[in-house]
Amino acid sequence: MIRFRVDWRSGVPPYQQIAQQVRQALRMGVLDVGDQLPSVREVVAAAVVNANTVLKAYRDLEREGLVEARAGQGTFVRARPPGPPPGTHSRLGRALASWVRQARAAGLDDEAIESLLRVTLQAPAEEDIA
Asked: What's the CA dihedral at 127, 86, 26, 15 to 10 degrees?
């Protein structure tokens, strides 16, 4: 079951955070096609947001073709976002978590880790990162 969290300091609108958390849960295999999303009432209570915020997030996901609302039944997962299957995300996530532990043990703080990740993502594939 997915549990929504809203970070009010992030600068990202709450409805986008909720939609992104659904996409992430689909990529990681936490949610699968056919699963029911929490009701609007449940999300409102858990994430302390307005019902319209949740409805907007669910509508955006529906426009993307990822979920479908069924009258009187709730909102259900219809498809996964494009990309590799959830097992790939889980395996790479574990490898990344291990790398982050190594980076912290080497003395890098979160800002340094983020900087290294950004530089690595922006570098051409064949270029070595110094």
From this structure: -20
For each successive 10 residues of the chain (130 residues), what is the average pLDDT? 90 95 92 94 92 96 96 95 84 92 96 92 71
| pTM for this predicted structure | 0.74
- SS3 state of residue 72: coil
> 15 with 54: CB under 8 angstroms?
yes
Query: Domain 14-77 carries which CATH code?
Result: 1.10.10.10
Domain ranges of the chain: 14-77, 86-122
Residues 61/78, Cβ–Cβ less than 8 Å: no
Give the Cα separation of 115 and 99 in Å (integer): 14
